[in-house]
Amino acid sequence: MSRTLVGRTTAITAVALAATLVAACGGGSDAGDGKVKLSIGVFSDFGYANLIKEYQASHPDIEIEQRTVKMEQHHTQLATQLAGGRGAADIVAIEEGNITQFRQSKDKFVNLADYGAKDLESQWAAWKWNQGATDGGNFVLGLGTDMGSLALCYRRDLFEAAGLPADRESVGKLWPTWEKYLEVADTFSQKTPGKKFVDTAQNVYKAILDQTEEGYFAKADDSFIGDKNDKVKQAFTLAATLGERKQTGALAPFSQDWNVALKQASFATTTCPAWALALIKAGAGDEAAGKWDVAAAPGGGGNWGGSFLAVPKQGKHPKEAYELAKWLTAPEQQKRIFKETGNLPSEPAAYKDPEVTATTNEYFNKAPVGQIFGTSAESLKPTYRGTKDSKVAPVFGNALSRVETGKQSTAEAFAQALQEARDAVK
Amino acid sequence: MSWRDKLGRLDTRYTPYLIIAPFFVVFGIFGLYPLLFTAWVSLHEWQLIDGDQGFTGLDNYAELLSDKNFWNALGNTVSLFLLSTVPQLFAALGLAALLDRGLRGRAFWRAGVLLPNVISVAAVALVFAQLFGRDFGIVNALLGFIGVDPVDWHAETWASHLAISSMVMWRWTGYNALIYLAAMQSVPKDMYESAMLDGASRWRVFWSITVPSIRPTILFTVIVSTIGGMQLFVEPQLFDPGGTATGTGGDDRQFQTLVMYLYEKGFRLFDAGYSSAIAWVLFLLILVVAVVNFTVARRIASKG
């Protein structure tokens, strides 16, 4: 073997080792063009595409990259990125159901109050602001984006087929309460046995529960009260009744099957917070244009979903990130997002604005969505969400699904759910 | 001895180590280190985002042993593993035997069996979830033609296991068949010829000559499939209509595998310590099953 070969193998090995080490600890850095690069991590459609272009045009020194992933993955990914200390976007969206969990790890986030966020407080509905703040309001974790004021969407043609009124005023009057909603379900099932009245018991349950002040956890001390709170049991029983009577499509909310069922027009009603209109439209497709309509929800307004923009501490440009988040959540921009995507602003100045209240939705038979959701938002009282809410909620969803598929009775399913919930919060 | 000879001897002795070193360095960084770190985490109460909350010794493991969801997940994993791996390896063996014969357009058929394996598992899972849809799925529509009532593939335990196994089989049968085929090609042809002369049937030749001759290959596929089967995750996870939002593998955990449970604990409930304990138990289980497999498979094969 010659000397050159020795040299060569050693060199190759050294290069391979070096490459490995570089790969292991490589890292990104800003481009050399002097621009500040900001990334914003969202899920589903936040309606930011055009706004980002505009912001870049008015801020030539800033370059913005939007990253979109599915909602569940988004929050899981964020958690691992926060744990790993790298990889998170400069601005991240956090959904209402998840923010309590992240609030516990607030030291991983920038306190927006340090940049003057407190001066903005009056922009938002008070409850929305409080959901994004902690430490008695001294730590501002996130600025509110949209909110999920509740309505009920229904298919006009199926209502007509069942001999029910089809105009939205009369439909809203059919169900002032959820008990009445059940009666309408019975009428519907008798007249049109081939169709389901509602997509899933899980959404009905969530809608009812979101109309109460407290759900699984006590407002006073964050303790688990799911087994003592009658409201939980009532909501569960009511939704499960629909399932027991086979009036639901037994679909997982917003799943692939849910989309297919929308396309096949196999169910007549679904709970629809403002942000769900876009999902229904996407699922049902153009051929169902004008067939869906929006009516008031039983039991008055409710709160369902809505997000916040937060700034993780690991970002390099917290100040610029805050400025962008502030701009994106300002009423002016929120109004435009509403027109584009239907996501309802969480700021009174925006949702009370005539431009917003006058908005109608062409696809939903020209429903005056601005007025419906705006009114619903006015009467909205948010449910208290416990720190461990996201651990407990899926347990009850699964229980309802077991009733819908006929595996368990309502009582059995509820008992099992309570046991699992207690285990989860232990 | 001149220094040049000395260097030459050093070269023959150490260069091979240098050449294989990169693998071990990479393995050390991306394999061994995470493994050991996971063991360390599993001995703590460890929150995913906030990290270490204190040393708890073997508490996580103790809790795991009395956790009925863990046993449920273990049962599902074993059931799915058996349902998918056993028929799959037999099917692959048969397929390989067919491909080993003089077919016209041989290259086309041989490349064709690998196609399912090339397609992204996420795409496969999405398509299969549609096929097995309860209300509008093709499988139920076909069953309807022969008068069978629609099956709720997602909700019922056995049905869901069958659906998920079919996905795994679809993906891996061709892959294993090609491995078997490669091995079959190296079986000496004169053995077949003498068997034929003795008047042995094709069936007899297959079991008495082909299968024993490719014993080491069968062993290899059994072990690789075992490891894959115990780590089954993507197919059932994407089959779950609730998606990662619940991640429980159906409304009654009817098809939640061990890795899905690990994911639920670690990444949805943020309990990294507990999740690490599951990971380590899974690691040990795979080790045990692989060793059992190895001994059993070798004994069976040596009988032939």
TrEMBL record, chain A:
InterPro entries: Bact_solute-bd_prot1, SBP. Pfam families: SBP_bac_8. Keywords: Signal. Residues 1-18 form the signal peptide. This is Cellobiose transport system substrate-binding protein. It comes from Saccharothrix ecbatanensis.
